[in-house]
Amino acid sequence: MSPHTKPAPRAGEPHSAAEHYAAAEALFAQARAIYPDLGSRAYHQNEYKRCLEWARMHLRLAEAITAGAGLVLAHRHLLANPDARLHDTQVAAEARSWDEYLEVQHDPAARTA
Question: 45 phi and psi, to 5 degrees?
């Protein structure tokens, strides 16, 4: 294992938006540490690219978590307001749809089929 890499967290562990931001920050720091060695070996170039790709993924997950939390809070606020008319909002159905989509995206057998 390269001195620039750390063991990946176990799959399925829940993470908050703040934890995803922290993970992205750590990966950006790893990329900065690798940067001076980029010209020497292809391995360093691949590791640098991997760090940036994973950091981007963590930032996108943090953004999605934050947006989802905002949606849930707005929905709860509207439910608590007796003057607001809700036209059968389907937050749970939307969440289920996203769960199914993400499950398919992360299941290699489903993607190749």
Answer: -65, -45
